[in-house]
Design brief:
Distance between the termini: 22 Å
Oligomer: single chain
Strand content: 5-15%
CATH topology: Diaminopimelate Epimerase, Chain A, domain 1
Largest sheet: 4 strands, mixed
CATH architecture: Roll
Helix content: 40-55%
Length: 162
């Protein structure tokens, strides 16, 4: 069954066209003005056959993307990746160790649940924006801006289609 879902996976480019990617990038940029964290967003339509045979999970792929995209490469270890695997209808959030120590897993699961509801309704852009807003809210709580300091944008804001 999983193999068929991946063979017939929806197109990431169709669900997230250029205009939607632009909107998501702007939302990330705007959200990062309210905290010192770094938010990244990545979408993978399906997995290659070797990964399916190996039984790769969405979580494993999200962790791979986290490393591949260098989401961990921030001064305060406060990068967060929102990852979607469309074929598995999976949403994963991977946080760097600084954030992970401060935000309980239950809060990340709640963000994923809210995003999942919107994705199931066919609202990819709304799901992405809701996820970014929720992650940014958590980052603002634990990494608020420091008055008088200019926060450096350490990671790209542009969503990645993997």
């Amino acid at each position: 069954m999983r193999l068929l879902r991946h063979v017939f996976a929806p197109s990431a480019r169709r669900l997230f066209p250029k205009q939607t990617l632009d909107t998501i990038a702007e939302a990330i940029k705007a959200s990062e003005r309210g905290h010192r964290g770094e938010v990244m967003f990545a979408v993978e339509a399906d997995l290659a056959l070797p990964l399916l045979w190996q039984g790769a999970t969405a979580r494993q792929r999200a962790e791979h993307a986290f490393a591949h995209l260098r989401t961990w490469d921030t001064r305060e270890n406060n990068g967060v990746l929102i990852y979607l695997l469309l074929a598995d209808h999976a949403i994963e959030i991977v946080a760097d160790r600084g954030v992970q120590a401060k935000v309980p897993a239950a809060q990340w699961r709640e963000v994923c649940r809210r995003m999942q509801e919107l994705l199931q309704a066919g609202q990819g852009e709304a799901a992405a924006l809701a996820g970014i807003a929720a992650v940014s809210e958590l980052l603002a709580e634990h990494y608020p801006p420091i008055a008088g300091e200019q926060d450096e944008d350490e990671l790209p804001n542009r969503p990645r289609l993997l």
